[in-house]
Specification:
Length: about 290
């Protein structure tokens, strides 16, 4: 299969390129230098020349604070950029896999969100990503929209200073005698390698739909940190942060757990418990 991956130098994009290549597919890795999502001419020109059968879009403006201070740009990248891709995909007859986020929900439900739950974003980032979802779903029939949560991978995440949560915790443990982490935010930590495997599996089907795509189970950031230190035999004084000890500059959902209902209903779910994904990540980084 001919596959074009947008945002191929990102944390998720790099693993998706690797997964398709290992699957024997012909993969073209596209970065901002090769394709400009805000420019419809650039999008159409690049994709017409490549004629991929599948386009995977991981590109986004996902720095939450910057999205809040630059809403016009956030909507341009996350919504209009997604629309440009959807229009081009429709024209050339390619399927489009578009990656979205748990931030389309407000976290008030306090039980896992299904694809049937009504989105209610709390911030510009969530609203811009939701707009992108709607553009994709209404523009081209051959679409897979995947919402994921709390991702981490081997490739550096530029928006987070190059450190994912695992690497940040291990770095701080070396620099400090102890640390405090919030237990008031609940997530499903999801390795980018597992998302990539799910995307490859979906690409072999025509089961176009909206999907939740995260690791099984959930934990607080404090519990995630505790598991990281346990698996790496890291000795540090880890404590629960007090209420409002680390006030967020932008409202965020305190509960971001997604249930992979549609994947399971269609027999397509390849995700495993978040602890297993973390264990593999720790083993691979040790090598």
């Amino acid at each position: 299969m001919k596959v074009a991956v947008i945002g191929a130098n990102g944390q998720l994009g790099a693993d998706i390129v690797r997964a398709f290549a290992e699957n024997g597919d012909a993969v073209t890795a596209l970065t901002h230098q090769e394709i400009e999502l805000l420019n419809a001419d650039s999008v159409f020109k690049s994709l017409r020349e490549l004629t991929p059968e599948l386009i995977v879009n991981t590109a986004a403006m996902h720095h939450v604070e910057k999205c809040e201070s630059e809403p016009d740009r956030a909507f341009a990248v996350n919504a209009i950029g997604a629309r440009n891709l959807a229009l081009a995909a429709r024209e050339i007859g390619a399927a489009l896999i578009h990656v979205s986020t748990d931030y389309v929900f407000d976290g008030a439900k306090k039980s896992p969100y299904s694809e049937q739950d009504t989105p209610r974003p709390l911030n510009v980032y969530g609203n811009s990503k939701l707009a992108g979802e709607y553009f994709v779903r209404s523009t081209t029939e051959k679409h897979f929209v995947l919402r994921t949560s709390a991702i981490y991978g081997k490739h550096p995440c530029r928006a987070k200073g190059g450190l994912n949560f695992v690497e940040l915790m291990l770095k701080l443990a070396k620099e400090r005698s102890g640390m405090r982490v919030v237990d008031s935010e609940i997530v499903s930590p999801t390795p980018t390698a597992d998302i990539a495997k799910q995307i490859v599996a979906l690409s072999r089907t025509d089961a176009y739909d909206l999907y939740h795509a995260t690791s099984e189970g959930s934990c607080s950031w404090y519990e995630f940190a505790r598991e990281i230190f346990a698996l790496t035999n890291t000795k540090t004084n880890l404590e629960v942060a007090g209420p409002n000890e680390f006030p967020a500059k932008v409202p965020r959902p305190s509960y971001s757990v997604l249930e992979n209902c549609v994947l399971k209903k269609k027999g397509l779910n390849v995700f495993r418990p978040w602890q297993d994904g973390l264990r593999d990540y720790i083993e691979q980084r040790a090598q």
